[in-house]
Amino acid sequence: MDHLLPEGAKPLITLAYDCEEDEYYEKIPKKGFEYSEFYNRVGWAYEDAWAHPIHSEDLLGGVEEGAQDKVRKPWQIEKFFQTWLFFGLIIEVFDLSGIEVKTTDFLAPIVRKSVHKPQTARLITTSKLPGLIMEWRKRHESSSNEAVFDRTHKLLDHVGKILDYHCVGGKDHRSPRQYGKVLWPVSDDTTTAIIAVASALRKASFIIYDKRGIENRWPVTNSLLLYQRIQRKWCRSDAAMIMEDFDIDGQAYIAAAPSRALDELDSHYACTDHSCEARVSDGTYVVKHDPECHKDDYAPEPKFLGHKFPEYGKSPVSLRDAIKDVMTANHLPVLRWNSNPDPEQAGFTTYGHRKNSYSEESSKVPPFVAISHV
Prior knowledge:
Layout lengths: L15 E2 L20 H4 L4 H4 L17 H4 L3 H22 L26 E2 L5 H14 L3 H22 L20 H21 L15 H10 L2 H10 L2 H9 L5 H5 L37 E6 L9 H10 L3 E7 L8 E7 L21
Parallel strand pairs: 3-5
Antiparallel strand pairs: 1-2, 4-5
């Protein structure tokens, strides 16, 4: 996750990789090797790789008798998916462009010494990922190979399929199940790290191979860890919207950003994923100003300079009346601020916007519209 955070930001997760060196991904021979069948190389069955017991087909549901005992231990599954979907994905993607990457490149050195029980687990870090992506881009520019893009996405699509299978119970609008794991005992930290790396590699490939404009939300699943972190800092409706509209890089940025003030969050106690129920008591809302702003610098009521286009056969004398005329015609009111050193010449002019795209008379309306939401 280090690659998603600005320099100096506190890490969102501390993820350990407790695996012997002879079990590292790059130690496995590659002859006849298919990334999607990694479980075969470590002696696992196909059912083991999906990490959940076989469900019975009777009407009562449940699992087949004895199937629960055949499922691998949680720590085994954790290490398996870290090796396969995190380290393995990174190594295989960069290997397609001739860039050698080792597991140790993504492990922080052990700095703590213990006399009684030495530290065996290494902490995972993605600090080298941006530099490797830059090298990937340089190699593509010097020797373009479009086939690499297809092979890269074959790997990424397999990882996305596994993430969505295990972590998504449905794709409904703001479904709570979209934010957490359903079937596997892999930790939220590991799930988040896999999503973060896979998403970064996928976005990088679109840019490097100039395939922009065809990206879509991938994977469907979200990090439960980030969702809970954002939910504690923001309105629940805002948190759900962030998880739905942003990819993991945007989610991580907001999760690492400062929180809203506690007194602001208190009014959002009744909010849900689907709606904001916060209420502000009448007469208590205070307009916030820039520190350099002085209330005496402007008149309380902006001056109305007149309505410009189109003509409605009316002569409004105030900004309020002009807007009412526009809306009565079922048009969109557009306000334009005309600045002038002379206060008497500065103020608002109004326009009526009749449809989504400007007509041949577009020269009579402002060339763009800025919308501010408070």
